[in-house]
Predict the structure.
Amino acid sequence: MDIDPAADAAERLRRVGLRVTRPRVAVLNAVQTHPHADTDTLIAAARAEVPEVSHQAVYDSLNALTEARLLRRIQPRGSVARYESRIDDNHHHVVCRSCGAIADVDCAVGEAPCLTASDDHGFVIETVEVIYWGVCPDCARAS
């Protein structure tokens, strides 16, 4: 049975108490189909679904969806903001120093969080963010 992505997006919006709008649904769908995409990519993808959507509506939707924890904003050093819909599972990222490609990395060992701080300073640690830096296979082949 096929699931209607727009219906799924609408349900996720309702679940967190956000009003269902065409731009929000388009942005959720864009991030779902383009993980780790920058805003320019997401604007183009949202406009493929809702041609009249403005830049500002996409930015506003990204902010609202991130605040509602439907999306996660990541910004590796030296990179523009990127967005993903994979949230709350304590995964990490690997970033290519050459082209900026980003891929998800699941925890290899242990319970979430995957890493234990040597001194937590009294904090109750909920998640750990790790970025692995390297060179992707395409860039490695090209060099």
